[in-house]
Amino acid sequence: MESLDLLMTGLEALLTPSRIGFMMLGVILGLLVGVLPGVGGTTGVAILLPVTVFLEPISALVMLAGIYWGSMYGGVITSILFAVPGNPWSVAVMFDGRPLAKQGKAQLAMSAAFVVSFVGALIASVLFTFFAVPFAELALSFGPPEMFAVLLIAFGTFIGMGGDAPGKAAIMIALGFLLSTVGLDVVTGAPRLTFGYIELLQGFHFVPITIGLFGIGEVLSNAAERYKVQIEEMTRAAKLGLHDVVESVRAVVRNWWLVISSAVLGFVTGILPGAGATPASFMAYGIAQKTSKHPEKFGKGAIEGVIAPEAANNAAGTGSILPMLVLGIPGSPTAAIMMAGVFMWGFIPGPRLFTEQPDFVWGFIASLYLSNVAALLICLTATPLLALMLRTPYAIMVPIIVVLCIVGSYAIQNSLLDVWLTLIFGVLGFILRRLNYPLAPLVVALVLGAPTEEALRQSLIMSDGSLAIFFQRPISMPIMLVALLLFILPLLQMIWRAVRARRTAEAAGK
Prior knowledge:
Structural class: mainly alpha
Order of helices and strands: HHHHHHHHEEHHHHHHHHHHHHHHH
Strand order of the largest sheet: 1-2
Number of strands: 2
Number of domains: 1
Largest sheet: 2 strands, antiparallel
Strand content: under 5%
Helix content: over 70%
Distance between the termini: 66 Å
Radius of gyration: 23 Å
């Protein structure tokens, strides 16, 4: 009941005309950036973060949350209508959503995606509400060794569960750590890597680098590929009627167990640092196919192939915020950008935030419910207008996005250094994309670099320089073992593949 009382407190803090207005504005902007291919939620939040500097903290965070949730809904439209995912987490929806559109069932696919997105986010929001306080109370018992172990898991996730290129992920983590060390030493206060420049004493601000990587870098990447979307019967396909909504609700009810299991899977995956909505959507799609009575229909227009990934990715988007608020560890790149905003508004993410700023925390949690309701209603009524955004020539969108990036980076500290950082990291982001290097590990390492170093050095001071402290404490030891396992997991997988290949070769030779 305590959680429900706190949620009511958050709703009271949120239910003012100005904050509701900013939330609605955020949802609309999120839907717009979600519809635009190559922009997406992470880029949209990064570009628009500087705008929130001029808002009071709760309104600013609620607006950013609206952008995030709106973008998760908006990416569905392009994935289903044009086979062009507006966000990485919308790729899995495209596998069956696009075949349904070709069969003349685009309305059913989109309405089912919108409805199940709302249901998945609602389930995750309920889990968030009831797990937030126990999670925060547990985190209060964490000292520096426990915090370092948890932070290490955040980086180990990228290595052990980040795909087929753990080496590239490790390089990006190292680069993020290097950038985070510029400025004043977190313990002694001595200048580091400033090369005599006074401007570098404050270190590299997170936001300009993120805007460059995700904003300018995305624009350059799309321009290099001569990105173009073919518009085909857009107005007709994008219309949603009451019949389509009713049919989609029936489809969701028929597959209620798939919806719940996908949402729970997404929420748990979202809590894992560095995982986020994209792997959750693919895992849910794979499980749905393996457990289906008709797996042969997947990839050819199975409605379950739309329901499962959409429920999972919206639940994961909600789950990724929980470790950001409670532990100061973002569960996704977008959550990392939101965490930068929390710092920017003068708050420190962590368990004490729940006791010191309850209106801020629970107002944001309440926005999880309201912004998803707003996104669902807007999507069901304004999908044709959102799809019309694709008629905007890319040559017009590019300068608008670039100007927003530059103005946004300058507005943070009124510094030309930040503008140069945005441009430099925009080019770097473009190069890294062409070389298939993941950007998320760099972003997370840049945000978590200082707290990771501080936790490590405080732990070593406590133990007179002995690393044994991480394995002697009852909470830090199991967390540390999991983190180390994640780091060596690619090596174990490589050894297993080699052994299996040898056994296969020996069996073939006989």
